[in-house]
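Listing S7. Sequence submitted for prediction.
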Amino acid sequence: MQEFIYYNPKGLDFPISEEILVTSDINDTKNKNFLISNTKEVDSELNADEIDFYIKNSKDSVSAKIENVLKLYEIAATKYDFAQDISYDEEVSKQLLLIANTKEEYESFTNAINPDDFELFSINEDIIKQISGHIGNLSVIVDDEGKDVTLNVSQIVWFDAKQIGLNQSGTFDPNLTSVEDVVKTLKENINSYSYKKFTTYDHTICQYHERREEICSKCEEVCPTVAITKDDETKTLGFSQIDCHGCGGCVSVCPSGAIDYAPSNKESLFEMSKFYEETHPLVIPEKMNMSSLEVSLKENILPFAVEGEKFLHEASFLTLLQISGSQVIFYSDFISKGSGDAIRIVNDIYQAKYGKNAILVAMNQDELKVALDEVSFIEGSEFNFNQDTLKKREIFSHRLQKIVGDEDLGEVKTGEHVHYGLVKVNEDKCTLCLVCVGACNVDALQADASDNTLRLNPSLCTSCGYCEVSCPEADCLTIEKDVIKLEPTWFKESILAKDDLFACVECGVEFATTKAVTKIANMMSPLFAHDPVKERSLYCCADCKPKIMMQNHFDQRNKGNA
């Protein structure tokens, strides 16, 4: 397989790397397999629109263009190598439901199709009660003169579609595009509808999965479809990849990193970011249509093409920022809740350290032109390390620690959708039962057996609150939420509580903390006040407790027989 191909019928006005097959004749691409191409006209595993975008708009020197064009191919190949977005197919029949509220809407659609194109049903939206399922297998419950009737169809056309029809895949609104575009899409979907896996999920670090109380379900809250659902009885999440739009909003709000973006996961982003050393990254989601974008890219600006527009979070932004050593431009006409919080947090951090924003957001072409002119390198901001095995919070913590260094830069407030916090413990009430440690699945809370301490690394805390609701002691553990303290102690383990181990009064073996033994003894002593043996058992280890109770039993029996 030839890995890289560049096709343009007009050719190129400068040479590019010999690693790339260059042709102006489309016939040269026939019956050949390619990994990365610059255009959808060539059959390849991945089409990289950013290549032509860069060539058309960059003001780099010829030598820089030669280097950067190859670099863009290598970036795309890296994305392909690390991608986990498996493709699937769903069978789709000709059964089609048309929801039209006027004669004009009905006729505009029916006139655009042939009678044998679809098995057409038509209803008015007023009788719709419920829509469920997904493309290829949709169930629409309608009110038929007081009776519920279920219509089973494969696709739906709905003029001015309501949210009830947009939650799942398979509904198309001609008012958003055109009747002609919708008809074309409907026909393409018949027989086989292809979709991708956009998310991966690690339930072991999920802060919703099988917890006694709901302390997090951000992913389900921000999902614009039914791609993520939750079962509040079992505390488990359900994922419907066929209903997923691939926006990635769930990824940016996931506090622990349990959900990741399959087309460009954190490992992929890290590896791609390495190509952006000493460049100004221009992040452009797929929906922003680079092929029609005409702007001037000053020297050292390199596009960073991503599929979704909502999956980038504070750790991924900071990775790209520190590897490039530059401000990052983010060009998108929509900023998600999670990405919005992340951008503000990172910008506040950079303002505190460097006196300038880290991320320049451009939501239209005019704003993009301003950002492209303004973007600059940030002296002293370069930093990199091998983050491959680290979780989301660990990556952010390590990178943020580099920024803070030995300084005290104040504090940064987090937000509505991205949370950090500081666990506080009333040491007088803490018995070191370590329930809170068991409740923490991001390793912010740790127990150190060497000195019998409960420790906290605040930089890893997601402020989920599960440790707080799990703590058996009243008024013992609290959380100061939504704050990041930009000081060295934030990244170091601090001792929240400490105690000495209590030695069994019989054998001398240390078996529990002194506070825990004392607490239980104080609770039970009144019940055992007239039985010194039972009272003594409160201060015994698990091995000695039954021994002294049995010995007392035998002593009493022998005494009675004497």
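Caption to Listing S7: primary sequence and predicted structure tokens for the chain studied. Residues 502-561 form one domain. The chain has a mean pLDDT of 93.
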